[in-house]
Amino acid sequence: MTAAAAHAQPSPPAGQPTPIAQPAGRTIGGPKLASSGLIVDPQAPPLPAVKAKTFVVADLDSGQILAARGPHVRLPPASTLKILTADTLLPRLHPEQPCTATAEDAAIIGSRAGVVPGQRYRADDLFRAMMMVSGNDAAYVLARCAGGVPQTVRLMQEEAHRLQAYDTTVVNPCGLDEPGQLSSAYDLALLGRAGMARQDFRGYVGVTKAPWPGKGGKPESMWNRNRLFYRYHGRATVIGVKNGYTTQARHTLVGAARQGDRTLIVSLMQGDRTIYEDAGRLLDWGFAASGKVHPVGQLVEPLPRPGLVSGDGSGERRAGGPGVVAQSRGERALGWLGVLLGAGVFFGGAAVLYRLLTRVSQKP
C-alpha cells in the first residue's frame, strides 16, 4: 500500500458525500462554493435538468465559475484522474523518452490501449493512449517510466496541492476504484484547466483519431473515447478533455468546448449514461449565460512549480536523467553568463593581487 493510500479517507457510502475538506477552514474558489446544493446567480436563466450528482460550469480562460452543484463534494473520479497524471508527468517526461511495458502493465484491469510486454514505446504515444482511449496500461507504463508507481502517486498528490485541488486524494495513477481515491467537480475543472494551458496536453485530448504502435511497432489507429466529440458536434467546437467510468464512480466527465470567443469547461461526477447529454445542456446554458450572469466562484490559479519549466508544451525541459527534461535556452544562457562573470571576477582579482605582490617584492 502506498503512503497516499495509508492516509486516505475511506470511499463514501453509496449516495453519501464525504465531508468537504478545505485548508484553514476556507473554501477554495469562494465561500459560495461550500454549498452541496445548486449554486447560481439568482438572476440567471434556469439551469437545465442534469442527472449528474455534482457539476461545475466555468469559463476556461478567466476561470470564473458560472454555476455549480456540490462543487467540493468528494467522490471517486474514475479515469478523469488521468488528467492529473498528465498534468504531473508531462513536465517530467520528454515526448521521445523510451518506456518499456511490463507484463504487469499489460494485465491491468479496465480500459487498455493494448501495450505489449517488453515493447518500447515513446512517452508521446503513451500519453496519447492514456488520454484518448483511457489506457490504464499506458498510465502504468508512464508511471514506471517516471520513477515508479509509488513515486508517481506521490508526485501526483504534490501536483494536486500545487494546483490547490485539495479535495483530491491519489492512490493510483489511472483512476481505478481504490479506497480513499477521491476528487470533486471543482478539482476536476481545476485539473482540466491546468492541462488545457499546455499545448502538448491539448494535442492529446483534442483529436478524435491518432496513430498507435501495435505489436512489433505495426501502425494501428486509435479513436478518442470521449463521446462529447460525437454527441455535441455542430453546437460548438469540442476541444477536450477526458471521460471516465468505474463501478463506484459511475460516469464522470470533464469537457471543454469553444463557441465564438468563449471557451467553457464543465466537470460532472456520478452521472449515468446521459452524462454527455448533461454536459451538452450545461455547455449550451453556459454559452447563453456567459457575460450575462454574475460568477459564483473562481477556479484558482496554480502555485509556482518549483524546479520545472512552466508548462507550455514547448519541449524545452530540464536535463538530469531518465524522465527529466532539458534546460531551456534562457536558463542555459543565464548559466553561461554566470560562468563568464565569475571567471572575469576571478581573473581580474588575480591580476590586481599579482600587481600588489610585485610592488611589495620590488621594495628595498
What does this structure look like?
With 364 residues, the chain is α+β, with helices and mostly antiparallel strands. It has eleven helices and eleven strands. It has helices at residues 3-6, 82-89, 103-106, 123-132, 136-145, 149-162, 185-196, 199-205, 228-231, 275-289, 329-362, and strands at 38-40, 54-59, 64-69, 98-100, 120-122, 209-213, 219-223, 237-246, 250-259, 262-271, 297-298. The strands form three sheets. Strands 1, 2, 3, 8, 9, 10 and 11 form a seven-stranded antiparallel β-sheet that branches. A hairpin with a 4-residue loop joins strand 2 and strand 3. Helix 4 packs antiparallel against helix 5. The chain is globular. Residues 1-20, 309-343 and 356-364 have low confidence and may be disordered.
| Helix share, percent | 25-40%
Specify the overall morphology.
globular
How many distinct helices?
A: 11
State the end-to-end CA separation: 80 Å
Order of helices and strands: HEEEHEHEHHHHHEEHEEEHEH
Q: Give the radius of gyration.
A: 24 Å
Largest sheet: 7 strands, antiparallel
Chain-averaged pLDDT:
84
Q: Structural class, judged by helices and strands?
A: alpha+beta
Low-confidence stretches: 1-20, 309-343, 356-364
Percentage of residues in strands: 15-25%
Count of strand segments = 11
Break the fold down into its secondary structure elements and pairings:
Blueprint: H1 3-6, E1 38-40, E2 54-59, E3 64-69, H2 82-89, E4 98-100, H3 103-106, E5 120-122, H4 123-132, H5 136-145, H6 149-162, H7 185-196, H8 199-205, E6 209-213, E7 219-223, H9 228-231, E8 237-246, E9 250-259, E10 262-271, H10 275-289, E11 297-298, H11 329-362
Antiparallel strand pairs: 1-3, 2-3, 2-10, 3-11, 4-5, 6-7, 8-9, 9-10
